[in-house]
Amino acid sequence: MGSAASTRNRQRKQGCERLGITILQLEEVDAVVQDRCQKECWPQVTKSKPSVQQVVRNFVKPEIKGKKRSYVEIKFEDRVSPPSWFSCHPWSISHASLVLGLRHLLDRHGETDATSVWVAAYCLYQHDEVSHAPDVVLPAVFGSRHLCDIAVHIDSQREIWRRMWCLSEILASATHGGEAMHVSFVAVEESKSGETTACSLSDHPVAVTESESERRSRDARFPLSAFALNRPIAIDTSCATLQEDEEAILRQIIKESGEGNSGSHASRSPSSPKQHPAYLKANTLLRVKIEAAAMRVAVLAQDEKMQGALLRGAQNNETLRGELKQAIEQAQSLLADPSPPKRAPAPAPTVEELQILGQGPAAEDLERSTSSKLLGARLGYLLEGFPLQAQRSTGQEDPTFHEMSKTLALNKTGLGYNKLCPRDGRLHCSVVDALAAGDARRASHFLSWCWDYRLQMYLQTWTQWRSQHHAEAFIWQCFFCNNQYRLQEGQQVTDESLGDIFQTRLLDIQQMVVMLDKFMQPKYLERVWCVYEMYTAAANSDRVTVDIMLPPDQAADIRTKIASGVWDDIRKKFQEVNVEHAKARVQRDEDMVKEHIKKGAGFDAVNAKVREKMMAWVLKQVEMFLLEDGKVRSGADFLRTAGLADYIDKLEEQGICTFEDLEDLEDADLAAIGFDPAARERLLQVVKMGPSAREETDFKDKLRMLGLTADVFEGLSEDEVMRNRNMEERLPTLGDKKKFRKWRQSCLTGEAVVEELVALDMLVERGPDWCYDGDSDDDMTPEDGGPQGVGKVVAWCSASGEAFGPVAPRPGWVKVHWQVTGRKRSYRMGTPERSAELVFAAAIADAQAARALSEVPKGEIQLHHLRCGFGYRCGTRFSHYALFDNRMEACEKVAAFKPGDVVEDKDGDRATCVGLKYRADAKKVDMWFHCNGRDGAGLFTHASHDRCLRKVAHKRLQEVSRDDAEGASDGEIDHDEREWVGQNLKPTLKYLSKSGQVLHFDVRDEMVRCFRMPFRSGDILVDKADGERMTCIGVASDPMRQLAARQRGGRRVPGSVAEVWFHVESSEGAGLNPKMHKMLSRFKVVDNRPVLEHVALGSSDAWDMETALGLLASLDGGLQCDFSFPRGAGENATPDFFDVRPELVYNVVGFRPGDVLTIRGGPPGTRLTLIGLRPDPDTGEISVWWHHEDFQCVHAGAGKIPGWEHMRQMMRDTGEKVNLEELKERIRSRRGRGEQGHGDLPEMLSQLSAQLSPADLQQLMGALMR
Q1: How far apart are CA 258 and CA 5, in angstroms?
Q2: Domains of the chain from N-terminus onward
Q3: According to a count of CB atoms within 10 Å of the terminal CB, is the N or C end of the chain lower?
Q4: Angstrom distances, CA of residue 712 to CA of 83, 473, 721, 727, 734
Q5: pTM for this structure?
Q6: 673-706 pLDDT tens trace
Q7: Cα Rg for the chain, rounded, in angstroms?
């Protein structure tokens, strides 16, 4: 037994105690999750709030795929700490609610941001082969008792009380074998206005700063409804997703009860739970935990009705009834005799006082005090955890450090409040002493900065700096590292301690980073502390390095000012530095620092050192500017760029136009030209800061200018680096990789999207082979948002089948998420044999689109301005799922309403604004409203929303998921799937189309299902709108439409690849409905009958296309072309020879030479005369040749009809037969009329089929006769 117990304890610690995630890390992950959910449009997410289950499926699993470790082990490998809290929650709970509840609970308990929590989603490996193994998960669950506290999250649906995993976790805390394990309940409630609040209830006193009366008041506000007391709570009636999990948990309960091996119960199975006393005992323990907490709330809230109900429910359970009575007594004693509020503790004696009393710290404590003064905050924390704390504590998006100090470094909300300071042994320490061990280490950099700086500028500047310095840095910054509590008490820095803070400390760290807020006239040089720090570093330049950094926008401003040739202005501004005029926020500090300077080096020496340091930095910026690619190296433009505009005339007169010319000049040469000493000094200075000897920079300089380490690409050419997407793996940080991707995107702009170049998240747009648009009169919205639409690659699959990204398409295809329409569609990647349907877009496409919207006048917003991402029902009747643009900045371009606004028209009818959507039929963007009583969003018919509608209220608009509607605007089969279906059809049924074509149908259910329709072949559908019936036939492609698709140059033809066909009862044959995927709610299946073959009369012995084409191919080399007939039209008609043997031609075409034909659907007077066979002079292929004429035109010779075999069934024999010799003579006598006869042929052919629009067939047959 002892061995088994120790093994079990070891398993528990491995499963639970080893891993945890801090609340700061969890908040960081939640921010990423919410952003990813919005951008990637996760399915089935309601109210834009993904559940924990959805986060695991869409975020955690992809992040850890193939790595065999949990998320915390991968993401926070060097910062994983053992947990002290266990989070118990159903996986259906909103992820945001989970994080908010934990934050509330930890704050109330006085926990720090470094407190670690065990959360299953992040602390367990979440892939199927492991996560569903009960023997792996159970040690973690039943190991929860080895922690200090358990947080029980009650979700809005109260699902937690029905989930076996959750109840088993609460049970584990109730059967704790050691010290009492604290249980806290937390619920996050959402008000009608959409605001969320968290409340909690604990079975123990919480933070030392919370008095008993405060605890009483907060506990009384906990909602009793959260306990779901109207339903039984029992472990044996709850459920888990997997049956084997239920059995494993129930076995574990028996095992933990100690009764699993007893003779009387050993044979009893968990499948009959109520017979086993272990379950009854477990249920009692659960009810004690839950109902005792509910009783506490009922007593504190003075809800006598609930108290009575709880007691009545426990009347048959003595143990439970006794616990409830005890809970009543404890709560009533608090109401009767509230304890006085706690007093703040007296200040602890100082280190010196303890030493006098003989109670001083040990040597290691003194060492800890010394090392504390040199601690720095981890830069990663400054950029990730700190901003959230600052914004939440101040309530501001962009506070100054003065404002942040009041909430983070001082007062009761300070991070160091009530924590022992290692420097003096008293309560309240510096921020850095309160940080987690991994976030505070010996400082590597000393920051010189201003307290007036704002948070966003601070973050942007550090982010830019970190992108150029890859090793993790620990920053000594007075805000974090000085104990602000002591400074507030009056222990200001004295004159004697200045050397310790700014010299001793700086010399020990040896690396100073100066943060400027702007390039010209920075605030930094106006502050006396800053100037003195710069002087200290400059005076010790042999030991201290200085790195000056700017915000990204100011770094760009340097280049602008240098390029504008204002060098003299720049130099003058930095020469104006004067420490004697610098200020401090506190006059006493200013006087003290200046007095210290007077006693030391003096103002002039300090000014000179600081000016020298700043000028050296400015010269370096100018040099970097002149080294950039694209900068001119000769002529007046170079002289002007170099800041020599005033000297252009004199220099050019002497033939000095390039940098090399300037390099050859000496002071005597300049004097001879006529320059005064000041000008000569200026010119020679430019030479010193000019470009190096090489003529131009290579691509590595471009990367360096972006802040990247180009050394990792040593020995590689630009083409090798740019065309290999895996090159980014050589870069150490995510920031570096993002910059590299942006550079690579800009280099590849306009190139075809091919397998060798494509990568996830790259921006793309339609390419030269784009073929998914309809006609100009088509009422289909372009899926990419039109020619200006930009999309992001979200998945792709190589030709060999290697998939990248979630839900990858078929091999050789790439899946794109279009920004305008919100749709995700797949497209072919380019190959050597085929141009690309997509090309790479410009790297700045996103920013350009944002600027474009801001400049659009009201009423002129276009399709490409939209960003549709909000799901809602579309259509006032038989609605379908569609995506709308619900951005307020976009809506205001149409009308003065925003999504959620309830409006009323002049008739009193009310509707709710949904957002913007493109109207393909009207070719405009309009605002859509959901009228009361209608299925979904629709349109008002009045001319102006602003004039005809008025806002009467506003409500929270509930987003609709795709599963809530039967059809969807983007619910059609994806392009790669359609292509696959077309290539894998196995026709077994012949059926006539409306145009008279006999099509071959595949009627297999699996093929019909590919089109995302809930139908089968043979289903009889009733149209709910008009009662008309139609039958689902199956899947087929139309050869005529295939021909049309080849001729249309970029416009789609429904049915050309594969489509589901339906036969409407009033029609002669099967047809298509290209919008069927949006109209699913309109049709109801009422019956299913096998589809029988349906072909034209007399078609049993009809001409067969495959036989004819096979015969035609076999004639190669066997023709007898001995009949002379003109070939071509107009002046291009030339004599040629044809094979006109009647039986041979008949076997191929089904007609004989000289037969006169018409085409079904063509205009009267149209005549096609079959001439014969001969090879095509361009391709050498044997072709069928025809002569065309009508009332206005007689062609001058024979021509080909591309795709004649697809039109063959539409040809009708007139019974007339023409002698070809006579036809030849008639053509000769009418020669010339054919020159103007081309115009009517497309018109005739446009009427060939009712299934294709005239525009389609004009494009299709424009080249019919050559």
Answers
A1: 12
A2: 2-336 (no CATH), 361-622 (no CATH), 627-697 (1.10.150.50), 749-855 (2.30.30.40), 858-964 (no CATH), 975-1088 (no CATH), 1103-1261 (no CATH)
A3: N
A4: 39, 21, 10, 9, 15
A5: 0.46
A6: 777 776 666 666 555 444 333 333 467 767 776 6
A7: 40
